Amino acid sequence: MRREGTIKKLLDAATDVLIELGYAGATVQKICARAGVSQGGLFRHFATTEALMVAVGEHVGNKLLVHYQREFERLREREEPLLLALRLVRDHCRSRDNQAWYELAVAARTNATLRKSLRPISARYHENIERLARQLLPDLAAALGPSFPVLVDTIVSIFDGEVIHRFVLENPAVESARLELLSGLVRHLVPVAR
């Protein structure tokens, strides 16, 4: 139990430091200070800083999926499911925790070792996103068949891109219209999505 508590402290601290200072600023010293754990304690649980960062990616991804499912199920009777699904993808892409994923992804662009280590975690995360989408929107998944994973990936990519764009320039009018446009496109392509 104590081991799990220490690991959670380290993951939460590393997530916070990644979000606040970026990958380059996420030093072992800052993470350990935030977690209240010695550097030796960190390395007892994670062989390398990279191993910690990969664990952060997995930790954050799992948290986001659990929260997404909880929110979808809580709101599904109040909102049209397709629009709700799209809105929640956007909200989760914009979430504080997801910023840690962006930091890791950007760092992986130029860090081949991190990129190689993150690939399996990222692939599993995207498989879990698709699995959850199938579970929550089964009629749409059935209607689209093999195109459903492409739709899910496209929607996530659109909202990931929107978040990156917003770091420099926000355009609330376009962002609002984007949600309606995406919903309309899916409904046009697949009448069952109504």
Structure commentary:
By secondary structure, the chain is mainly alpha-helical. It has a single domain, classed as Tetracycline Repressor, domain 2 (Orthogonal Bundle), CATH 1.10.357. The protein has ten helices and no strands. The chain has helices spanning 2-25, 28-35, 39-45, 49-75, 81-94, 96-110, 112-136, 138-144, 148-166, 172-189. Helix 4 (49-75) packs antiparallel against helix 6 (96-110) and helix 6 (96-110) packs across helix 7 (112-136). The longest helix is centred in the N-terminal third of the chain and has 27 residues, at 49-75. The mean pLDDT is 94.
Fold blueprint:
Blueprint lengths: L1 H24 L2 H8 L3 H7 L3 H27 L5 H14 L1 H15 L1 H25 L1 H7 L3 H19 L5 H18 L5
Helix pairs in contact: 1-2, 1-4, 1-6, 4-5, 4-6, 4-7, 5-9, 5-10, 6-7, 7-8, 7-9
- CA radius of gyration is 18 Å
Overall 3D shape: elongated
Could you name the CATH class? Answer: Mainly Alpha
Which architecture would the CATH scheme give at its second level? Orthogonal Bundle
Write down the oligomeric state. Answer: single chain
- Proportion of strand residues: under 5%
Q: Per CATH, what is the topology?
A: Tetracycline Repressor, domain 2
Show unreliable segments: none
Number of strands: 0
Write the element-wise H/E pattern from the N-terminal end onward: HHHHHHHHHH
Biggest beta sheet summary: none
Residues in helices, as a percent range = over 70%
State the separation between the terminal residues, measured CA to CA: 47 Å
pLDDT average, as an integer? Answer: 94
